[in-house]
Design a protein that fits this description.
Layout: E1 7-12, H1 26-43, H2 48-53, E2 57-67, E3 76-87, E4 90-99, E5 104-115, E6 121-122, H3 125-128
Antiparallel strand pairs: 1-3, 2-5, 3-4, 4-5, 5-6
């Protein structure tokens, strides 16, 4: 899969992810997106866990999220993820959570970087090669 292509991960809401209002708790959406990012990276050939074993950690530095339509227990949904470059040492994941009827439940931009064993931002070649320039 070319890095500029979006990946789609199908999931469904588990009942314990809902709060007393009967909707998915806002923090759970972050878990959905994180899992989808890891799967996206694996599809691109980047093993997040193996990088960490070598002392290079992909970290989130900022998340911007718009919660648009709530998810409920049992709802099927998909997380659509794609990457783009934010700067020389940063990348963004653009992620949408889509209901089965096509409505957008959440739209987010997750900004991250890679830090080396000393905690300094770096861009390892295997990650650098994957990240397209931002779409204009």
């Amino acid at each position: 899969m070319p890095s500029s292509e979006a990946s789609r991960l199908e999931m469904s809401v588990r009942d314990y992810e809902c709060d007393v209002q009967g909707i998915v708790n806002h923090a759970v959406y972050l878990n959905y997106m994180e899992h989808a990012r890891h799967q996206h990276l694996l599809r691109l050939g980047v093993d997040f866990v193996e990088m960490a074993r070598r002392g290079f950690n992909m970290v989130v530095t900022r998340i911007e999220a718009d919660y648009l339509v709530p998810l409920h227990a049992g709802d099927p949904f998909a997380v659509v993820s794609r990457m783009e470059r934010s700067s020389r040492l940063r990348f963004s994941f653009l992620q949408d959570i889509l209901l089965s009827d096509g409505r957008t439940s959440l739209r987010a931009k997750v900004i991250g970087t890679v830090v080396d064993p000393r905690g300094r931002p770096v861009m390892p070649p295997e990650v650098d090669a994957l990240i397209p320039e931002p779409s204009r």
